[in-house]
Structure formats: C-alpha cells, structure tokens
C-alpha cells in the first residue's frame, strides 16, 4: 500500500494492493489505440464520418453536463456552435485590408479564429445565462429557443457572413507548421480535443465544483443551505457547455471548409438534445455514444428507407422520431445508462465521478473558533411573522447557548416550521430580531449563514439519491474548499479534495454511517438518511445545528442512536435547536423545551416541568405520557 493512503478496512472491505483503474480509465485505455489505428485502417469516407461524430460528441458533451447533470434544458447548443464556426470562417476568409488596422493580424489566423469564436460564445452565454439562469421553470429552455431562432436568422441576414449562402473557401487548417488538410489528420485533432474534454469533464464532476453542479438536481434549498452558490454552479455548467460548443464550431469550420446557417438551426439544437438523451443523460461517455448512434441511425435510415418506401417523401424524420420515442420508453437512462447498469455493481456515480479508490489520509481541515460553553449562540427577540391576516408566529423570544439542546414543540399548525424557516434564514420575520453570535441575521441568506456557522437538516430529507453517501456529505464541506473549475478539470485540486472527502468520512464515522461511505444515498433507510443529513451539516463545521423533526420516521434503535449522537455533540459544545413532534425523544434528551400553540409561546423550561405544565397538557389534548 502506498504511504499516505488509507485502506478501506474502516468500511469493512479489504485493502487493495494497488490503485484500481476507474471504468472511464479502462474505456480510455481501450479507446486510444483503436482511435490511433482507425485512420490507418478505415476508408476516408468513414474517417470523415468519424470526424463529424467527434465534433457532434464535443457539443453533446456540453449538453450532458448542462441538461443531464445540472438539469437545465438548452436548445441553443447548435447556435453556440454557429457563433464560433462563423467567427472562425470569417477570420479565415477575410483579407487583412478588410479588418481595422490593429486587428489585421487576425486575418487568416486559425488561432485568432479560435480565440474570437470562444470569447464570443462565452460572452453571449454569460449574457443569456445572466438573464435566464436566475429564473426557474421554463425560462431557460424558452430563452435558448429564442436565441437559437434569432441567431439562425441573423446568420442568414448578415451580408458580411455571406447571407443564406454562407461563407466558403475556408483554407485548410494549419497549426504550428502541421497541415490538417486531410480527413485523417483532422481525425487525430478532433478526437484528441474530444478525449481531453471528456477527461476534463470527468475530473470536473469528481470535484467540489462538480458536486455543486450535481447538487442542483437535488433542489436549491438544500445546496444553498450548505453554502453552495446555485447561480454560480448553473453558470459554470452553462459556460462549460458553451465552451465545448465553441470548440466544436471551430473544428466544424475547418472540417467542412464552408459554413452556412442551416447546420445551426433550432432543428440542429434539438438533434443535439436527442444525442444527449439517447447516449445517456448525465453519462459523460453517453455524449460519444449518442453522437455516434444518431449519426449512424440517420445515415442508415437515409440509405434504407428509399428502398423500402420509395423516394417520394422524407420518411427519415418520421422513422427517426419514432425510434427516439421507443428508445426513451425502453431505455430512459439512454444507452450509456443501460450499459452502466449492466456493469456497475453499485450505481452510485451516474456521472462517472470519484472512482472506488481508497480515500487519501488527508490533513484535517482547519476548524472555526467555537463559542465557549454557555455563550449565547442564537437569540430570537420578539419574532412575529404574519401571512396576510394570519399571525403564524407572535412575539417569540428565546436563546440557545453553546453546549445546550433546546426543543421547540407544539401541536400541528403551532408555527414551528415558520419559526424554523426564519431561524435558518429561508424566511424572514415581519418584525423582531434574530441574532447569531451577537450579530443580527434576519434578512440574510441561508447561504451566508452556512458560512457563518449555522447548519441545518430538513424535515423532508433532501439528498441526492444516486450520489454516494460520501459525496452527499462532502457537499456540506463546500465552503471549506476553494478550488475552482480550472483546478478541478486539470486535477490540481487533489490535495484539497482529499481533505474534503476525509472530512466527510470523519463525520460519517461520527454519526455511525462509516460502513456506507460508497453506498448510493438513496439506498439507505430513512433513519440513516436523517443521520446522513446530520453528518452533512456537521461537515460545514457549525457551532449551531438546526434540526427539523430529526426523529420523524425513525425506529426505536435509530432514535436511540440519534439521541446518543446529539448528546455527544452537546458535550463537545455544539448549540442544538430541534423542532420535534416525538415527545418521548424530546423529553429524555433536551435541556429546555419551548412550547408553542397558535403561533405563541405557552410554556418554556426544563422537560420535567414542561411535562406537568397544565397549559401544555391542555394543548396536546390528552396530555403527555
Ligand atoms: N407561506 C405561508 N402562507 C400562509 N400561511 C402559512 C404559510 N406558512 C405557514 N402558514 C400558516 O401558519 C400556521 C403555522 O404553520 P406551521 O407550518 O409553521 O406550523 P407547524 O407547527 O410547523 O405545523 P406542523 O407541525 O403541522 O408542521 C399555519 O396556520 C399555516 O397554515
């Protein structure tokens, strides 16, 4: 075993003697020699087809990230390719005299075409993203449709871009003295870029930023509460997708040596979505499979159908549509998803993220300064929350101190959830103040509070069921890392990533889930999922834990384990506030109880006095056993 590498014996499995190759590693190992030999063995016609597949796969890869992983549907991928292809074609065909003086050097330069194409694509994506990504629902798909349509007509109407006839006469690509004038030479360039993009995407998904992007599918309330900037994560996915489209556009211009508006139409944008869907939504290799599948299927239908149905109609589109419907019905995860299902023993990494390798024994992350035991951590001062005429919380005041557990109880509709939402900064009081470590926090965002040391769990468990337990918990440590997209794509984040995962493992061991690190989170029992949420909250290194009905749905032994954990956390100086229905659980555990009814306080004190308080017994109709 390598020094500095922990075996998985803590997870109950034997220590492997050498690092294992990931499934993607095996695919690459098999693919590289095949790709190296392909142009030498295949006829030029098929090499050209493979070049098209490579370019389509690059654009589809962006959609896999954007639509498959991050859950944002875009019809505009073809339009992004068009921007870059036109920029490349224009600069490749324009003469120096036609450009303004300082830009004259760009005429005929493929690298200038690449740079301008990428800059334009990213600038437009930034603008479009800024307008649509903050909006929920159908705004992004609609925005990309509008953008795809308008760009298509723009290309056709701009005189200097050749109008509907397009730009032709693009010279063969020549880079650093190497001529890419034949399909075979272009093949190596296209597939090298594609494989690099695949590896960069796999790396990105297997990182702190990648987890933030993948967490978008689990609902933003959860990820924002863990300190993830959802808008930034969306923008990252959007820009990476646009970057791949930009690269595809540059390659397209030099492969076809001619550009016109038709290949960048809305229809083409839809075709790219089909490629992503057929290949496998969320599967990085699905981009390659989808691009190849759709290209071959279209080719095959074009050859076959005229023989079967005659030459009078365009039947390919109809048969192709039917094939897609059938495929989606029978293989909703696409072809790559189906293959992954066949091969993977545990399907917990749909995006090809962290492989089942040992967790490095990393240096612990720095911890925040914790308040001294007894110090007031949270203070509610006269909180009132009105919904129109309804007063859900009226003049609520209490404190929670470091090393103390406070339970907020009350019958249904008492206003507990409303209070919890305000304390966790998801909602804000109509009047009154909330102070955290002495600072006023009402009005702040849940994300800001995650950074300040307030961490929470959810009444209805919010996790990413197809992600591993370890990765789910590592989302909690998001703010304790700082490496960005480039570092992740280039694998320069490994030391930090090791520390984040080691922290996630430490918290999982702490809550008693140490043997489930690599299990799919969705496969855990509800009680274990609640513990996972607590481990995720602890990963943020909080000084205040807000737990929303943590014992709901738990079996007796699970409740006992949870109570033991909370007692341990309290003894370590954690301030804990829990909203709970389960009286047995609360009374045996907490230091103080705050009882609400109809939005108001009816009692407050230690469990012993609360249990015999007449107002409380009355509120609970029948009393507490
Ligand atoms: N967004 C809202 N708009 C209008 N009324 C609301 C809203 N949220 C809560 N309420 C009302 O506020 C009151 C308190 O609701 P709340 O969900 O806080 O109670 P609770 O004690 O958490 O109940 P339960 O134990 O059933 O979850 C209820 O009458 C509820 O209908």
From TrEMBL:
It is a multi-pass membrane protein. The chain crosses the membrane at residues 53-71, 78-97, 103-131, 186-205, 235-253, 273-297, 317-340. Keywords: ATP-binding, Cell membrane, Membrane, Nucleotide-binding, Transmembrane, Transmembrane helix, Transport. Pfam families: ABC_tran, BCA_ABC_TP_C, BPD_transp_2. It is found in: Cell membrane. SMART domains: AAA (SM00382). SUPFAM superfamilies: P-loop containing nucleoside triphosphate hydrolases. GO terms for molecular function: ATP binding; ATP hydrolysis activity; branched-chain amino acid transmembrane transporter activity. GO terms for cellular component: plasma membrane. It comes from the Bacteria. InterPro entries: AAA+_ATPase, ABC_AA/LPS_Transport, ABC_transp_permease, ABC_transporter-like_ATP-bd, ABC_transporter-like_CS, BCA_ABC_TP_C, LivM-like, P-loop_NTPase. Residues 378-623 form the ABC transporter domain. This is ABC transporter domain-containing protein.
